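Onboarding guide, step 5: your first structure request.
Type a short instruction followed by the sequence, for example:

Predict the 3D structure of this protein.
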Amino acid sequence: MPSSSPPCLDEVFDWMRSNRLQLNTAKTEILWCSNTRRLNQLPSAAVRLGEHHVLSSTTVRDLGIHIDNDVTVRTHVSRMVLGCFAALRQLRSIRRSVSDSVFHSLVMTRLDNAALACLSMSQLRRLQSLLNAAARLMRRSTRYEHVTPMLMVLQKRHRC
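The system replies with structure tokens like these:
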């Protein structure tokens, strides 16, 4: 059963309508945020927004960053790592005809993100394994070679 709309949402909706702005409820998501202990206390019913009802979500995407309802970027890191590893798998077959700048644009630029400033150690390990795999593929080395010298060379080469 849909719940009534909080007063602040009604005010935003009325303000938008009075300024001839239209809210696309098909693309609107509501994210209730809480700490991990209280996530089970968050409302799960749909919220009325104007004449429509909007379901709450456990994660939303805003400006390309996925934010979880416990205000972490766990989903963002997971999707980014999966996407980058998929790109690396595709590039592996054509490695000889691809320049390092292609690797840089497909992998490294995704990691240059301020949202990644306060990550947990497990998330940092996932990102480090992605960097290691990208460096090994770019340098055509085996997985048993030390990756630190390769990362240092790549860092020097791609500094802006």
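Each response can be followed by summary notes, for example: Residues 95-157 form one domain.
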